[in-house]
Amino acid sequence: MGGRGISDLSVRRPWLAAVMSLLIVIAGIGALFGIEVRELPDVDRPIVSVRANYPGASPTTVDAEVASLVEGAVARVAGVEAVRTSSEEGNFRMRVEFSSDRDLANAANDVREAVSRVETRLPDGVEDLFVVKSEEDADPVVDVAVWSDARSIGELTRLVEDAIATEFTAVDGVAEVVLFGDRQRVLRVEVKPDRLAAFGLSIGEVAEVLRAAQFDVPVGSFSSGPLEVLVRADATVAEPARIEELLLNDRVRLGDVAEVYFGLATPDSVARLDGRQVVSLGIVRQAQSNTVRISDEVSSAIERLKQRFPDLGFAVTSDDAVFIKGAISEVLKTLGVALVIVIAVIWVFFGRLGATLIPAVTIPIALVGSVAGIYLMGFSINLITLLALVLATGLVVDDAIVVTENIQRRRQEGMGRRAAAVLGSGQVFFAVIATTVTLIAVFVPISFLPSDAGRLFTEFGFVLAVTVAISSFVALTMCPMLASLSEGLGRGGGVFGGLGTRLAALYGALIRPMIRAPLVTLMGATLIAGGAVLVYERLGEELVPPEDRGMVSVWVQGPDGTGLDYTDRQVVKVEDMLRPYVEQGVAQSLYSITGRYDLNRGSIGVRLVPWQERDVSQADIEAEISDELDALPGARPRIRSGNSLGLRGGSGGGLSIALTGPNYPQIAEAADAFARDMEELTGVSGIRVQYQATQPQLSIGVDRQRASDLRVPMATLSGTLRALIDEDEVAELTIDDEAVPIFLQSSQGAVRDPVDLMNLNIRSDAGDLVPLSQIVTLNERGVAAELDRHEQRRAIEIDASVSPDVTLREVIDEVRAMGQERLPAGIGLIFLGEAASLDETSSALTATYVIALLVVFLVLLAQFESLTSALVVMTTVPFGVCAAIYALLLTGTTINIYSQIGVLMLIGVMAKNGILLVEFANQLRDDGREVMDAAYEAALARLRPIAMTLICTVMAGLPLILGTGPGAEARASIGWVIVGGLGMAAIFTLFLTPAAYALLSGLTRARASSSVALDRELRDTGA
User: Fold this and answer.
1) What's the pTM value of the predicted model, to 2 decimals?
2) Whether the Cβ atoms of residue 671 and residue 827 lie closer than 8 Å to each other
3) Total Cβ atoms within 10 A of residue 339
4) Cys-Cys with 785: which of 364, 560, 630, 1022 at CB 3.0–4.6 Å?
5) What's the confidence (pLDDT) of residue 3?
6) pLDDT at 454
7) DSSP code for 610
8) Count of CB atoms within 10 A of residue 818's CB?
9) Exposure of 172 by Cβ count < 10 A (0-12 exposed, 13-18 middle, 19+ buried)?
10) C-alpha count within 13 angstroms, C-beta hemisphere, residue 543
11) Least confident of 616-625, 743-752, 821-830, 878-887
């Protein structure tokens, strides 16, 4: 039976062939019930955040005494890829990124151990030091707004903290729930400094009395007969009036020098939804968790909460899963349309429904069966795997078309249906296996790309490989079996019945002179390809194309030192710019947060109506408001955008870099100069140096020798200054199961000028009141509000917006060249966010191209047992890449991760079609044909299957470029490569391959000659 064994078996035992295919389908349907659905493959790097508060400490102090120690310990943890630290007034945040093979839970535990080892070396004032399994300042995947017309903001805050946030925290995959706009209830003790001085008292004595206000301790137990009685001592004072009755000394009550009352904590953020003040809950997911599942469970939790609290209002203000579900729905529609188009193309060529259904049956079997493969490999149904299935729709039918078409040709030669099925499939058996192995050899290297973007396509490569392998199996089993049962397959019809015959004759007339003058043909093709090399430089390069994600997001940053009220006024101005879109029905809601992690930062977002309900895109709205935003006085606005690969990082779609060096002043000088130089670059605007020494700071210099002489302890001095200047949390009271902080502060107006500080007194250990003017000096200067570190080096970040008229690659190359030329010695340049991902991905994809081409060549060499045959196929592949370049140029598509994947697929399809022609030509040479005759006859015989497979693949890509809705931009990038590139590459396949075969294969003998020589030698030796 030779190579046709499996086809012969399927014809002899049709039920066996049918059952094998049905088992594949059943496995796929069963996998659908257990497979996970998400936006992207689970390739998140484990990210752990470390945070701590150091009340009252300046950024410089936090950086030197806290952040550097913790960073040094964490950086030594196994598997750490990158550490980024930001130190601000009173706190620091650290982002620790691990290699992808580290388990998130184990990585977090290792970080906790590292932090605990240095915790004892940190200053005493450091508090709330903890580790979280998520990225610090990560954007929430779901934002929920809560409001009430009946409850005060304090009551609402308590309810949100106790009953609502806990519901969301319990959702699997949620790292934390971040609150904005909340106002906690506090007990304020407002001290009057002049009254303190009159009674000869100090702030420290007031603080000591307040610390004793909560007195509830267990003192033991005793036995009373058979009972064990617990004993507690409780002298807690919880009412303001009773606290005012506390004695500071024998004759002075606390109420004599201070006013005690319940109030709300000083706001550090304000959240609004359509002008209404709300409490916002930002639900941050853990790395490696499922956004769609979190969104669904949060929606269920909201429905439960609405029933529990009918007086509360709930609204989801942003939800990443809306885009994900929409994009998945669009890809499924694309898949369905591609399926119909491919079947229609087959029908046009075969002309009969029965003949059409034979290859068409492989599509659902292969696609459904691939779901089982996805499940078994631990993958998920996501945008990447669905995109692979869309592209596979045109590929999986190729083998079936080749087999069915050859069986039909043998039937037309007069063979019986069973013999034609066995012999026809056997004739192309090797070609089908060769093309399948070649395609797998192209797709599998995609799965081993090392970069973040490349790792996303691990599932893409394997899914394509599995789907093609299943389709090959079905083509060699089901197609011969069904063909053997079909009476009408041998009849003519379709396009090649009439017009097709004339087109084939025209094709034969065109290729005959090309085959006779192959060198001239190759030279002409090379000139065309040379043009593609020249225009390649005109193609822009970016990580992913800009996308309409249904959300316009603007971030604003006020000058350092500005407070919440100032920032909120700027936020309101941006709200006014965006409100018309809500009124016009383009957007659903207007949502803002002032004080997003810093008092001088805010964010404003409008959630757009569904894609099909609006005529304007996200990019249109962003372009309309950009001029107004640029004219905004008093704040620096920036439009942030995301993408389907989730790789923007901190750059938000623009350019983000960091300069590193030995100390901040030296880096700052270089950063300011470099920012001015960057203004010369085309397409770069809104350049922002994140280090600005503009935060006003009043430095209080303490004369330690003088303080020691007057017996004034440092701890008493720091507590006094914190209470009188701002507010100092000295204790907590437990009231109705609620922890209420006690804040000690100075009465309003007591300290509003630096000179007022000099009039305050502090109690020494000797019992004397010492004026502060005797031990401190004042100095006003500007400092940086935030200090950053990258790669354990001090760093200053520079952000810039990139115009749509230029690509990110052009900007990166110009910035890198400028850095090498103009940055002083000792100052390093690091690309961050999308720029870093683009750099990493570009080099990885280049390596993948080389590896894919090498692997394909080696596979062809092994399959053909002929160097020249492998070279013939490989000769046409570069010309296919050139066709893709022309397609990108004509359609204005950039080189991005999607279009590059399309080019890789193009390589596989080009090699596949080349194999069909070369393998048949080799068979003809084995039968005794001359090289040129073999090339000519093979080209004519394989014209129809090659044309059918090419048209099927091209037409299957049409829905990608014609589709709309979420994710359309990404799908169009790969679609244009398939439709345009493969369309033009068809010319190279049909005309160049026969010429290349005539030129190269003439240098060697027929493949069968070595086999004949071996048989002769074996006969001569009597073996």
Assistant:
1) 0.73
2) no
3) 20
4) 560
5) 44
6) 64
7) P
8) 16
9) exposed
10) 30
11) 743-752
